[in-house]
Amino acid sequence: MKPATAAKKLDVYLPATPAEFRERPITRAELADLQADPPEWLRTLRTDGPHPKNLVAAKLGISNSGLVRGGITEALTTAQIDELLAEMPDWLAAERATQLEVRREDRRIKSLHADKRRSREEGDAEPDA
């Protein structure tokens, strides 16, 4: 597989990986080995970053779009993420509130669909006459 695909599966920022990782295809067996027994560089990247944007957004508790709206377009380190969380700029607080509302609405809709499904299933099971 391409190094970009392998990096995505490993949840790491490709430009921060070693050159030998970026410059050649990664086999599925190699990927499995990296996942099962990560080398030091991989453990360090996962702990300290820089992290890919999707993980930055998740660690900040916002969407990828919210990250862009906040002006964050590059990968961030764990220290930079922690600093943002400590400072809690207005844009981040607003994006976190928006994300919370989105999650609440998703749960409400999921519950509504589950209720309708249960209701249909109960209606299908007619009692014996």
Structural commentary:
- Residues 103-129 are annotated as: Disordered.
- With 129 residues, the protein is mainly α.
- It is built from 8 helices and no strands.
- The chain has helices spanning 3-10, 19-22, 28-36, 40-48, 53-60, 64-69, 78-87, 90-124.
- It is flat, with a radius of gyration of 21 Å.
- The termini are far apart.
Give me a quick take on this structure.
By secondary structure, the protein is an all-alpha fold.
- The ordered H/E elements are HHHHHHHH
Main sheet attributes: strand count, strand direction, barrel closure:
none
Rg computed from alpha carbons, rounded to a whole number of angstroms: 21 Å
As a percent range, the share of strand residues is under 5%
Distance between the termini: 61 Å
Biased composition (Basic and acidic residues): 103-122
InterPro entries: DUF5997 (IPR046039)
Protein name: DUF5997 family protein
Region (Disordered): 103-129
Characteristics:
8 helices; 0% strand; 69% helix; 129 residues; mainly alpha
What layout of secondary structure does this protein have?
Blueprint: H1 3-10, H2 19-22, H3 28-36, H4 40-48, H5 53-60, H6 64-69, H7 78-87, H8 90-124
